[in-house]
Write a structure and sequence with these properties.
Layout lengths: L4 E9 L8 H20 L3 E6 L6 E2 L5 E2 L9 E10 L2 H8 L3 H4 L3 E6 L6
């Protein structure tokens, strides 16, 4: 049996002030519930979280700006840590992510444990 490694899926999307309708919200929540549930049912989900759009950035000089980091018109909106044998398997878990249907993207990164 192959050893499972941990990979982080970073969800990015364009921030918007548009509010989805109640029906759209219910649909999105269902899509996310099914997506996360399918990974959990394979015993490959470690954890997941959403990120709010309120935040700040601190630069190397210690200066704080009261906004979130946006690159290529997208910002981080959440993440998920999954277990997979290799990056290709982690990509296969990411390919059905609902953020893709919303115009967002998923970055798949290997995790390196910190040793103290």
């Amino acid at each position: 049996m192959e050893t499972l490694k941990e990979f982080m899926l970073l969800f990015r999307m364009a921030p918007t002030n548009e509010r989805p309708t109640a029906e759209q919200m219910a649909t999105m929540q269902n899509q996310w519930k099914n997506y996360i549930g399918s990974i959990a049912s394979q015993a490959k989900l470690v954890n997941t979280s959403r990120l709010g759009f309120e935040g700040s950035c601190i630069n190397p000089k210690g200066q704080i700006s009261n906004n979130i980091y946006i690159s290529d018109k997208q910002t981080l909106s959440g993440n998920m840590v999954v277990k997979a044998t290799n990056i290709q398997e982690a990509e296969n878990l990411a390919i059905n992510c609902p953020v893709l249907a919303m115009g967002g993207s998923v970055e798949v990164r290997s995790l390196i444990p910190m040793e103290f």
